[in-house]
Write a structure and sequence with these properties.
The chain is mainly α. About 50% of the residues lie in helices and about 10% in strands. The model has no long low-confidence stretch (mean pLDDT about 90).
């Protein structure tokens, strides 16, 4: 995000996608606080980047454009499970509960507090409302397309990568696929739509 320099605001810490009363209350409070800063944000920043539900900013800036990256939900589910395993000290209730329960992958996929993660980030928006749809599996091409659409080049960064993951991604067996289809079906459908929109965007900028 170096292209935006100091005019990008990073907004993390909402516990977005994690559904417990504590997390919901935290998000509501942070949304109220952020929306109260509207004039400051409009004056000081050109972009807001982070992990938040889109409704936090919907309607706040008349000319705002929403963009998002999406990831294959089977890969995303398994990747996040291993991320939680690797980060036991992360200050997040999700991490605490995960390790207290010593969750297996099957336990994690069935966990009601953490399902259809990617769909939740859209809030009341449709994926068709987004000005840009990127795919993690087409990362370099997505960055090039972002530059073509917005005239701004983004930094190429790879963070929180599992050093044990194979280059072709995680092996997804039949049981994992079945569980993701059951508990993250909305994300499966969303990703299929994301691939269609990505291809259309690619045609427009080719």
């Amino acid at each position: 995000m170096g292209a935006y320099g100091p005019r990008i605001m990073l907004d993390y810490g909402d516990w977005a996608g994690f559904n417990t009363p504590e997390a919901n209350e935290r998000r509501a409070e942070r949304e109220r606080n952020m929306r109260a800063r509207r004039d400051e944000l409009a004056s000081n920043y050109d972009a807001i980047h982070g992990h938040f539900i889109a409704d936090k900013y919907v309607g706040l800036f008349p000319d705002a454009k929403f963009v998002a990256f999406f990831r294959d939900p089977y890969q995303q589910a398994v990747a996040h499970y291993y991320f939680l395993q690797r980060n036991p000290q992360r200050p997040h209730p999700e991490e605490t509960i995960f390790h207290e329960r010593n969750m297996s992958l099957a336990d994690y996929l069935e966990w009601s507090a953490f399902q259809n993660h990617q769909s939740q980030f859209l809030g009341s928006l449709s994926i068709d409302d987004l000005a840009f749809v990127g795919l993690s599996e087409e990362y370099a091409e997505s960055l090039a397309m972002f530059e073509a659409i917005f005239g701004t080049a983004l930094d190429v960064k790879f963070e929180n990568v599992n050093p044990l993951r194979q280059a072709e991604g995680y092996h997804i067996d039949a049981e994992v696929r079945k569980a993701v289809n059951k508990y993250r079906g909305a994300d499966v459908e969303l990703y299929e739509r994301a691939k269609v929109l990505f291809a259309k965007q690619l045609q427009r900028v080719a």
